[in-house]
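Record type: ASSEMBLY
Status: queued
Input:
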Amino acid sequence: MEVVAERKRTSVGKNVRKVDGVALVCGRPKFTLDVDIPGTLVGKILHSPHAHAEIVSIDTSEAEALPGVVCILHHGNVERIPYTTAGQGWPEPSPYDSFLFDRKVRFVGDRVAAVAAESEEVAEEALRLIRVEYRILPAVFSPDEALADGAPVIHDEEDAAGIHDARRNIAAAVDIPVGDIERGFSESDVVVEATCEIPYFQHTPIEPHCTVAYFDEDGRLVIRTSTQVPFHVRRIVARALGLPMHRIRVIKPRIGGGFGTKQEIILEDVAAALALRTGRPVVMAYTREEEFVCARTRHPMRVRVRLGAKHDGTLHAVEMEALSNTGAYGAHALTVLSNVGSKTLPLYNKAPHLHFHGKAVYTNLPVAGAYRGYGATQGYFALEVAMDELAERLGMDPVELRLKNHIRAGETSPIFEKIGEGREGKPMVVRSCALEECLKVGAERIGWHKKRTEKRREGPWAYGVGMACAMQGSGITGIDMGAATIVMNEDGSFRLLVGATDLGTGSDTILAQIAAEVLGVPVEKIVVYSSDTDLTPFDVGAYASSTTYVSGTAVLRAAEEVRRQILKVAAGMLEEAPGDLELSGERVISKKTEKSVALSEVGHRATYVVDQHQIAATASFVPPESPPPFAAFFCEVAVDTETGVVRVERFVAAADCGVAIHPKLAEGQLEGAIVQGIGHALTEELLFSGKGRCLNANLFDYKIPCALDVPHIEVALVKSEEPTGPFGAKSIAEVGINGPLPAISNAIYDAVGVRLRRAPFTPERVLSALLSR
Amino acid sequence: MKIYFELNGEQQYVDIEPGESLLSLLRRLGMKSVKQGCNTGDCGACTVLVDGRAVRSCITFAAKVRGRRVTTLEGLGSVDDLHPLPEAFLEAGAVQCGFCTPGMILTAYELLSRNDDPTPEEVRAAISGNLCRCTGYAKIVRAILLAAEWKREGRWR
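Status: finished
Output:
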């Protein structure tokens, strides 16, 4: 791979202006709902008021008679095709257990019918006029209840496929033994066990799900939608509606945050169905309440970790058991469950005896799905709290225990091969790892050694420090594919067409930087167009921390091919060999004679003058490995021993994402992920009534951090050089969210000596733990 | 019902629906920078300035702006003539998805019109009603402090 030497780089590693930045800070109409198409109907969904029920009858006659109502769809008038709403690669690892509309509803908020009307008010009124008769079925609201003998079967439909054991409500199961776990524990000097649990967390992108479906002048269906996965939307909508894929075009404009919940086909199928039936444009947008209940959530999970270690701290046996609640449908059930183990266990690769096992279970609660961290967040909570307990039992500093056990460059873990994305993985050697340095930098910045020894107290406030480590991946090995096309314009500028999906992460900018670096032009000379299934090449989309690494490598390859083509033309112009030429400052320059020619002249010549042809290339990349980014997290908390209030005073994270292509964007990913994690740790939790109705589906009662809730956050990017990554880069988007839950729990323990194993660590929970000490 | 009001320096005489929110009216008039994130006044994405004061347009009746001066982000500058406040957001890396950005900028505009030398705590308090799920706020606070510095240096017009 030919890359520009680091000292000569003009784009990579620089904080260039975001390519979409100026338009965004000027409020230009770049989002899904910012277009007005004349004649657009408003689509609305009727949701189930019951957690589990059969639909006995639906009477839409009164609603249909309402002036302005154009169409009502329900299970009685649409084709029944099983599919999954999870926007993943092919073959799809999530069960086909969803239907456009079904005869049964499985949670409060499940789809019953959809209305298209001339206005939102009329659509809402029509929903009230639809008469539905339900036969209420017994419901289950936890995996334990769902697994009990005699529990109601949530997916008893005959035509679902890919469910692990529908009769027992088990959507997915994994069981991965390595070595002999019981022997491992019997040979260990110290054994500790920790069980940690998280409730329902929701992504809360500030832009709720929204989509517009319409027909273009050629009668093709266009879906303009707020999605992370435009190509999966096209494939899944084609399946769900029985349409040929070539009749569908999916466009992703700017999107207002995703974090995983938009890796899902939630409104696109319904809006497309309404547009097809009416022949008119249809707009649909979730309300905030719908976003909480009917979009997706993180999988609530109980994870039990048992660690066995030798006296010197070397891990000898690690067992991890996960019980995941996938809610009413199995979106991402198997893959999130798999990632609980696959993204955590390789971090401490010294133990020869491992056992990872677990189940993802259906319940009559909202549907879980992909959420930043994707199982690793749940796994690290338990693993890193257990590591803290182990350090205490061994009388060892928690940082020392990590240093003793964490994976290093040149090492591997059997887990890489044993657990993949819903199937076996691939063996992999870690080629870059700066975790040791991250631990040192983080410990120093927080003042770890001093603060661990002093026990500070001010009135009722007790202070403590805690830490945790984490890794993630960079894309999905052997499955993810990203492609890029680069076309040279005759003025020496370029068009970069990528299927990759910028969901606010800045990937359009990062991909432009990679292209600009190879082509020797400033980023402004790269016009980026992304995420349009008609105009851009394929890309799986934005998930699994893949874009910089996977799509970035595709861009690098395309740029290198375009560079070769440019040098060939320039060689003729300069009468020199292509090998003696280089690209820099928008010129082709001879290293031998210093003769040069402007790129605009090269473009002009190829387009209009001699041997006329389009300078362009398309390249693809499927990652043979998924290099992990690493991070060390340190935090200081204050605990009010009278009220149980926990205040995070400072949070320090040091992360190794290889070479940061855009350091400010990389820091922003880390800062944002940490604050989401702090929200998870302290305040966030969806609450449900005894009948499965969500009680706090609004931003007042489901508390995400505001600017006043956020402590002083310091992030440090610790450089490593990933030899397989574009310009040495790995991922950064997800790893940051894995740290706050365990680091804060461990800091609370350091402050007041109680272990918080159930998130969020609300004043009630902390106080009750303090009182039962 | 028809109302007169001033929108980004231009007089408007428009029909409004009974009970219509200011958010709905402004988006109908093409001011797409005004974003709907919750419709309950909790997220701040719909923030606009009415007579220079930051208000949540989703819970403000359109009828309330009769005879008043409304400013949306469209009124603050343009792609070709960038206002220093949004420019500071770019400079500090305070924009990720950009959906909360218009409301955040207008809230900051109101703060800096009252106080051009705020402390980080004052900035955090001012934007505490504007939720952002992407950035963790660190770079937004820095952007507003940078804009304040530019304002004190006389770089604002």
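Annotation: Chain B has a mean pLDDT of 97.
Annotation: Strands of chain B lie at 2-7, 10-15, 47-50, 53-56, 69-71.
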